[in-house]
Amino acid sequence: MALATRTRTSAPSHGPHGPQGSRSPSFWRSTIGKKTVMAVSGLIMLGYLVVHMLGNLKIFFGADEFNGYAHWLRTLGSPFLHYEWALWLVRVLLLAAVVAHAVSAYQLSRLDIKARPVKYVHKRRRASYATRTMRWGGIILGLFIVWHLLDLTTLTVNERAWAGHPYENVLATFSTWYGNTIYIVAMAALGLHVRHGFWSAAQTLGAGSARRERTLKAFANGLAVVLFAGFVSVPVAVMTGMVN
Amino acid sequence: MKLTLRVWRQRGADAPGHMASYEVDGISEDMSFLEMLDTLNEDLILRGEDPVAFDHDCREGICGACSLVINGDAHGPERTTTCQLHMRSFADGDTIDVEPWRAAAFPVVKDLVVDRGAFDRIIQAGGYITAPTGSAPEAHATAVPKADADFAFEHAECIGCGACVAACPNGSAMLFTSAKVNHLNVLPQGSPERETRVLDMVARMDEEGFGGCTLTGECATACPKGIPLPSIAAMNKEWLRAVRKGPR
What we know:
The complex is a heterodimer.
Chain A: E1 14-15, E2 18-19, H1 31-56, H2 63-75, H3 85-114, H4 129-132, H5 134-152, H6 166-173, H7 177-204, H8 213-239
Antiparallel strand pairs in A: 1-2
Helix pairs in contact in A: 1-3, 1-7, 1-8, 5-7, 7-8
Chain B: E1 3-10, E2 17-24, H1 33-46, E3 69-70, E4 73-74, E5 95-99, E6 108-110, E7 113-114, H2 117-126, H3 146-156, H4 163-167, H5 174-185, H6 194-207, H7 218-222, H8 230-245
Parallel strand pairs in B: 1-5
Antiparallel strand pairs in B: 1-2, 3-4, 3-5, 6-7
Helix pairs in contact in B: 2-5, 2-6, 3-5, 5-6, 5-8, 6-8
């Protein structure tokens, strides 16, 4: 009779090579999978923001150039694509990215909060400001996007709305105190969000290494500053009368 | 040195806990933090009170048994283990807060002792390496590039103390798991199970109720063995690679 060489454990499903039955949990179930979704959707939105910011700068070259650019966006891809189709394709992609980003952020945040049910009595400040404000910053940005669309896309809340004349509408927004305040606060939140977000996305996608850490951080900071400065230059120019 | 300690006291896993204040006197600055707690416990035993329960073993900084969050820092203000933390890091008359590791995956057993069995189960999920046992293999049979050997050794230094989880605001075990995964995945000896190891260990880590990584960097700052933050990126890369290739 052979001798028993292994002690039977109470949990036979977890043998020496782990839970055989549930070896490949779905990508979405894993925290790393959710973070990958968050990183990719974040990078899609970031890519859009860079293009959006560069487009905004056309406001410094007058109403004709800015409004012409807005019109060109609608005829992009023609004659192959119908009027506004390219724009709608981008909108659908962005909506998918926003939803994926928000859902993964919500689910991961819930897991994170559940993983530390009892807080430390001795509090101390942890992590950088940009890192600590990722969740609230994200919510602020979500609300800002809603306002921004109602203000300059649907023109619902724009007081001096003039359909088909984005240059005049931008000026209308930035000639109100609240328009400037909402916009500049949101862009500050965006800069902070990008600062930690871009670097984190790089880590999540496995691009980080000891050698590249400094370069990635510098690039994330640079991107945050460029986006903030580029976007905020428009309300500042309107306020100072450079653009009128 | 005379100190005021505020220590987390909890009779059992399900009992409510509280911070209790104790005065300790006659502490030498050459004592380790654990020796200071031994002094407190001797006092408590003489007074007929229940001594403070805390984990400790080698007291040489190599076993990973000691824990304690001291003034909000895992293993205290120096970058070392609690057993290698000396009282010279504190000043006479200080008030020191001592708390257990806080994480859903590390339930408190008593006072400052937590159950770190979740770490053992993550390691168990990683399984074995496929290697012949018996006589020692010929040392030159399997060549390992120096850079890979250094990378593996850097991660093999992890003693599994759990400071990374205690320091992380999300109670995440990503740094620990990455140390274990990277250690074996970079070596030829660990390569037959490269994909299953990372998939199984990460799945187990999630099942144990650890949070996700938000790259705050608190773990790497607290780690007494200096496991670096990019280790997490290296594990993410391994995980994504394994998902693409599928477990073999």
